Amino acid sequence: MKSQKAKANVFDVAKAAGVSVATVSRAFNIPDRVGAEAREKVFNAAMQLGYSPNPAAKALRLQKSFIIGAVIPSLDYSMFARMTHAFEEQLTAAGYSVFVVTNGFDNRNMLDAVKKIVERGAEALLLVGKIEDPRLRSYLEETQIPCVTTYSYNEDPIVPSIGFDNYAATKQAVEFLIRLGHRNMAMVAGPLQGNDRQQARMRGFEETMRAHGLNDGIHIIEKSYGAAMMQGADAMRQIYYEFPDVTAVVCNADVFALSAIAECRRLGLRVPEDISVVGFDDDDYTTIFSPALTTIAVPAAEMGRHAARSLMGALTAGRRVMSARLDTQLVVRESTSVPRIAAAKISPEVA
Amino acid sequence: MKSQKAKANVFDVAKAAGVSVATVSRAFNIPDRVGAEAREKVFNAAMQLGYSPNPAAKALRLQKSFIIGAVIPSLDYSMFARMTHAFEEQLTAAGYSVFVVTNGFDNRNMLDAVKKIVERGAEALLLVGKIEDPRLRSYLEETQIPCVTTYSYNEDPIVPSIGFDNYAATKQAVEFLIRLGHRNMAMVAGPLQGNDRQQARMRGFEETMRAHGLNDGIHIIEKSYGAAMMQGADAMRQIYYEFPDVTAVVCNADVFALSAIAECRRLGLRVPEDISVVGFDDDDYTTIFSPALTTIAVPAAEMGRHAARSLMGALTAGRRVMSARLDTQLVVRESTSVPRIAAAKISPEVA
DNA sequence: CTGAAAGCGCTTACAG
DNA sequence: CTGAAAGCGCTTACAG
């Protein structure tokens, strides 16, 4: 009924319920330590007044904000959106709130974003990628804030990771292609600077090729993320003109792969007959594309959920955040097959 | 140097700088009202101690949290991710933080999410879709919290909207198809319950068809959002078997459209020769799909940015949030053409 | 230009 | 089981 009064606080409720503010507070936070009758009165009064505790006051008093921060490269990439979504869902259900801040793909300037979000009250952090900046590392170490990094997996004493093995995932894809008979491949990578995931995939590609003696079949094309739908096409054109012997293209993102395939169509290249293409991520779209994309499925939602649980464990039970290596999966669909035998090189024994 | 001390506060800085806490506070917030010398000392001390103001204390004292909340259906849909991204970017740059909470597509239970986010301190709100729940409406009205809803546009005295005209957008697509010669169409819609955008698009479809005397050519297929990649395919199969005369399919999401086209392939239906398909959203993927999708481009990022600015205007300058109708665009690509003339119905004059 | 002090709303020892 | 009171860290009239 009281219409214009700002907002009820503990005192208002206490007065209305005829008890002290201590009792009001206890009724909400440690109900067992309040008599049933008083508790009842408090709840009624609170309901009547539309009371809800002031989060700032609570945070100040408790030295605990119930805020968790996520610093991610971008929300525009479905995998990050998916991870963030799962993270947020899990945390919201447990009474936490999540701040998300996007920071681009270059981890070299993550420090500012992290500082900002911590200064805004985040008491735990989800990050993406390996944390290499020494200033960030020591900041995290000194500040002692529970944090976890995702998408990468590596043994790091100060920043545990809940991610997957980018190197191994790529290696698996490359070995699959080698088994199929491919000897000359190109990788379409995102910007490598400050992005350990891209770097790991590149190494996975190079070293696997080399391990199979295919030193001459290694081509790396680095593309930016802007207008991703063009980048794959650009890369494909470059491959077509500069590396005509390439029979398989390993893309570090499904968007690259799909737009590369689209470009193949324009170039008159059949996928997979003329050229095989594999992606990375396993976006939803990959299955309805034709040819359906062979790609590496990434545990995006699982990373988000797992990270959420670990961080809450750290916050509420003081548990250390444990690193976890989640699995990826090579999903073989229609965009890969045995290579065409280039006309000039047909050798009877191979047929 | 002081290593294990929790965190410096105003008193620590004041002591180190040899001034009072009032001066410390002023040095940061109203620097002109502090002598240059004192200011200097304060900044040095603060830097030394790694001081940053406690946001909870600040919020409590100022009765202002610098937190803005966004309640969106899902982050997994690229358009929402894109809007949220733009919203967040704009606000973060201005010193605000954003809480995002996802709530599913049915606005009938948005109230809880809104209450929760407000109780967590949000001082302004971005919502999605028309707010019809009377309880939510009166909550927003009483609480006087600046808020804006997106994706829908409608004159609403209590919840201004920064969105677009779903009805008109669909109407435009349908008229385009009619002009092409289509007389029998199906709409593939998301769940209509509690989703005014879907409802508006359905009305746009039905009424436009009727306005052209095509009452018999109206088919609505309602699909859920779960596993969206299946839904379009399911719908397409249903159309194929139950409404064989349909020559154009209007999908209320690109995911529906793309998976419908994929299903056409399986069904042996050529797009657009045998059947035209139009989407909604203009996802990135639509251009690399073959056929490239004719669809309705939605101003996702623009809504986010615009909403951010409006909310900040309301918060800082007390400006009322003004509704704004942003434009959509029918982007005609390859998935639409004149209809095939069903064999049984060929009439010489029409050819 | 500067400082002492009150107060934002909450929780929790401390007494009883 | 309950209450009075201190204190979390900050800002801002109010004095000077």
Task: Tell me what you see in this structure.
Chains A, B: This is LacI family transcriptional regulator. Two copies of one chain form a homodimer. By secondary structure, chain A is α/β, with parallel strands linked by helices. Chain A starts with 9 loop residues before the first helix and ends in a 20-residue tail after the last strand. Helix content of chain A is 44%, strand content 14%. Chain A is elongated, with a radius of gyration of 27 Å. In chain A, the strands form three sheets. In chain A, strands 2-1-3-4-5-11 form a six-stranded parallel sheet, with helices on both faces. In chain A, strands 7-6-8-9 form a four-stranded parallel sheet, with helices on both faces. Chain A has a two-stranded antiparallel sheet with strand order 10-12. In chain A, 50% of the residues are buried. Chain A has three domains: 10-53, Orthogonal Bundle (434 Repressor (Amino-terminal Domain)), CATH 1.10.260.40; 64-165 and 300-327, Response regulator (Rossmann fold, 3-Layer(aba) Sandwich), CATH 3.40.50.2300; 166-298 and 332-339, Response regulator (Rossmann fold, 3-Layer(aba) Sandwich), CATH 3.40.50.2300. At the A-B interface, helix 4, helix 5, strand 2, helix 6 and helix 10 of A face helix 4, helix 5, strand 2, helix 6 and helix 10 of B. The structure holds a DNA duplex (16 and 16 nucleotides).
